[in-house]
Write a structure and sequence with these properties.
By secondary structure, the chain is of the alpha/beta class. It has 13 helices and 13 strands. The protein has one domain: P-loop containing nucleotide triphosphate hydrolases (Rossmann fold), CATH 3.40.50.300.
Length: about 375
């Protein structure tokens, strides 16, 4: 970690040294990624469990900034089973979106790089390690097998192209072989109707600014589902919508998932949405998974103090309180993370062991895992971090 002046700024010499070191590291990653004619054997892998659509295994995604290295995702491991919805929850900046962007290979490069770990994608007859896949191969996968509904539809859609052209492009790129323009347009109209847009012919000719937020979000969902992907990443798809439209969008996603038998990785801050949509829940804090389990286990028996704090901070119907609970303190600096439990300085349930290094993962049930010293005595030993 570079020394800073009292006012918090790096010296010019220190900044140049960091920038030079960052360029050296990121150039090595970029050189590896931009290779042509990479043999398939380099990124072929085996699924740990063939019933999973995606497996994140010890994923480390770092951003090499002028102020230092931000460990945005620091050893994340969880699975997305086939045909299930996994809710990823945590406060802003905990690494939820960066985890999904690592899977899509849409990180802001060259600063953002996956430096360690595997992301295993189940292709049916074989499995690919996404972290090792070259760009040209990833373009065939992205949108076809793995698709993403982005957080803000106004910035996801191109303002200078009509809605129809933007959805047509997705279909033409992946499934356009042997199809005429009329065939592609018919499929686009069908998709717009499938996501609940009544005036599909009219919307086909419109520009994004002519639609409401809910309609734009539906168009983004139609684009994501155009090729019937096996994995759908929904990155806070209902954040910009009012509650009635939010309920419609969630119903739509649930029904479409069953229709095309895909898996959903649902990223959100809203615990109510998680309770309604998810089969499994992953709780992230400061770039790590602190707890994971089935939705019933997480909601009826939250184990990590951070999860307990999240549950306590949501309003409950019929329960009157003067003030909602808020977790004290703030998230540690991502450039200079402590070598003990990241939540320790905010935790109100600390035990003696909390003075040690970052806690290992402890298994509470076949599907429930938590990284917390409070459970060490019960299990005597933890698993992998």
């Amino acid at each position: 970690m570079a020394k800073k002046k009292a006012e918090g700024y790096l010296s010019g010499r220190e900044a140049r040294r960091i920038a030079k070191e960052n360029r050296r590291i990121t150039n090595a990653f970029e050189k590896q990624r931009k290779r042509k004619n990479v043999p398939e054997s380099e990124y072929l892998t085996q699924m740990a469990d063939p019933n999973n659509a995606v497996e994140f295994d010890n994923l480390h995604t770092y951003f090499y900034t002028d102020a230092g290295v931000v460990k945005s995702v620091d050893g994340v491991s969880f699975e997305v089973p086939i045909g299930k919805t996994v809710g990823v929850v945590g406060e802003s900046g905990c690494g939820k979106s960066v985890t999904s962007l690592s899977l899509m290979q849409l990180l802001q490069r060259p600063q953002g790089q996956v430096v360690e770990g595997e992301i295993r994608l189940n292709m049916g007859d074989k499995a690919y390690d996404v972290t090792k896949m070259p760009n040209e191969q990833m373009q065939k996968i992205r949108g076809n097998y793995v698709s993403m509904i982005f957080q803000e539809p106004m910035t996801s859609l191109n303002p200078v192209f009509r809605i129809g052209e933007q959805v047509d492009e997705v279909i033409a790129l992946h499934h356009g072989e042997g199809k005429t323009k009329e065939d592609i347009k018919a499929r686009t109209i069908q998709l717009l109707e499938m996501v609940g847009i009544a005036n599909s012919q009219g919307v086909y000719q419109m520009y994004p600014h002519e639609l409401s937020g809910g309609m734009r979000q539906r168009v983004c969902i139609a684009m994501a589902l155009a090729c019937s992907p096996k994995v759908i990443i929904a990155d806070e798809p209902t954040t910009a919508l009012d509650v009635t439209i939010q309920a419609q969008v969630l119903d739509l996603l649930r029904n479409l998932k069953d229709k095309i038998n895909s898996s959903i990785m649902f990223i959100t801050h809203d615990l109510g949405v998680i309770a309604e949509m998810a089969d499994y829940v992953v709780v992230m804090y400061a770039g790590r998974v602190v707890e994971k389990g089935t939705v019933h286990e997480i909601f009826s028996n939250p184990a990590h103090p951070y999860t307990i704090g999240l549950m306590a901070s949501k309003p409950v119907v019929g329960k009157q309180v003067d003030k909602l609970y808020s977790i004290p303190g703030k998230v540690p600096n991502p450039i200079d993370m402590p070598n003990y439990c990241y939540f320790k300085d905010r935790c109100e349930m600390c035990v003696e062991g909390c003075n040690g290094e970052y806690p290992c993962q402890v298994q509470l049930s076949p599907t429930h895992f938590v990284s917390c010293y409070r459970y060490y005595d019960k299990k005597n030993q933890g698993g992998e971090v």
